[in-house]
Amino acid sequence: MFCRNLKAILVMAFINIGSLISLQAIAAPDAASGKVKSQTCFACHGVDGIGSSPNIPHIAAQPPLSIFYQLVQFREGMRKGGGMEVFAKPLSDEDIRDIAAYFSALPPPPAKAGDATKVAAGLKLTQQSYCNSCHAPQLQGQKQVPRLAGQSIEYSVLQLRNIRSGTRVDMDGTMGSAARGLSDEDIEVLAIYAASLN
Amino acid sequence: MKIKMIPTLLLTASMAMVTLANAQAPAPAPAPTGVPPTWAQGRSADGMNPALVPNPSPLVAKPVNEILIDKLKVPAGFKIELWASGMPNARSMTESPSGTIFVGTRFPGNVYAVVNKDGKREVKTIAKGLHRPNGVAFANGSLYVAELSRIIRYDNIEQNLDNPPTPVVVFDALPKDEPHGWKYLKLSPDGQYLYFQIGTPANIIVPPSTHATIMRLNLKTNTIETVATGVRNSVGMDFQPGTKELWFTNMGRDWAGEDLPNDTLNRLTRPKGMNFGYPHCHQGDWLDPELGKGRSCDEFDKPVLKLGAHVSPIGLRFYTGSQFPAEYKGNIFIAEYGSWNRSKKAGYQVVRVVLDAKNNPVKLEPFVTGWLQGEEYWGRPADVQVIKDGSLLISDGEAGAIYRVSYGK
ipTM of this model? Predict the structure, then answer.
């Protein structure tokens, strides 16, 4: 037992020395440090990553790369909304990676049971609209693509409307094409279905 | 009794089968009717692993401690070093006569200049917020940049790197499709034309006649013309010294197989009228499972060389320097950005193509490897550029960096 601990300590010491000696180097994503850097985020997004009001997204359990992409896009002025540009401005790449590591490791938002007919309609439309191709089978997100499962309905509706109108520009046009043909009713049932998943 | 039991048994058996079928396949999902993401277009239910998805495009550059230069392998006698870094999504390169390297990107829309200053290199971001400024070419003191749907020009750019002028719009009537819409740009040897591609706006469709082409812009008359058709998406071009022929890479379609069709190296032997087969025939000899029906590959022009399926060849250059050993003269270097539509990753390397005296390829071999470690990649070579001292630069779109390969000393 003692030997094992010693080995672990030595390994940690080695890693720390490694990161000290290379200039311009940044450390691996660190959730603990991310929590410290996320203090400003908590007022709206919660220490548990659950938005404090319906128009604020839940960011708990988002794929880390998805959080990273959104914060970089806010920082670079590629995405605007909710004053996030201002909060993202001073963040370094390392800060963003740490923040993403913290929120992505939190338990996902709870599923919100909705009207059964609308949930079923949302499931059908999700399958017809290729949503799972990028957002994954249970809309849990993957790589840079955000998690939609358990998301606030109001937030999802607003984002889909903004993408449809072009107010929110996605990175490569994929979501723009996907949202173009959706009616307000379509958007509502998609958001209700996504919220019903965990 | 015996006779009576048989139908009962059959009924029970068939009910069991129904139950089993229900357990394995619950309610069948409704057929998709919406617009698929471009990369998923052409994916069939009975085809390849449907969980394959494209690699994310990077928005930031890697810190130097994550650029694993020691992992890169070059042939004996060669050396590779990190030459410049901190350039998110560094892709296409061009060198000005005075030695400035200009670098284009897809995301996040920057153009960089790398200049030598007192023996040290300095990276300057000369444009931000452009729309997919992937193509760069230098002519008469001006930098041409190909965005998604237009070509712009920065005059006297080298005198104004710290305060670049507002660009002149040269041509802005190109298609606005996002899929395969980013351009490669290449100046012709006579300086009169800019060559570029208009990629197909999907994975596998019958494209509009404007798309799946190589075009050129006449800089004197400001008119465009089609040079070649049936080219799915070419994101790398170079003119062969001597013959002055255009050679280019072409990306094959996805979702038709793990090992088919091949990405290719192609050669333009006629200035106009060549058709390389897309969407009917791929790699010169393989009919498309759907759009090849009723067609023959004999209708089309053939590639010079198959490079492997899904390796994603981008930039290529003829080796025109004198620093490398004599057998490298006239060779072609190709940067392979690497696969996504394949269970086992392929590409993620720079390859060397050796041609014989009749211009036929006689050897295809890796030249620089190591961006792929197991099934994880840390970098993706995007373009190559032979610079004046005879060394070879390699841009890395993932790491946001440029490496330099040199020989001897």
Answer: 0.85
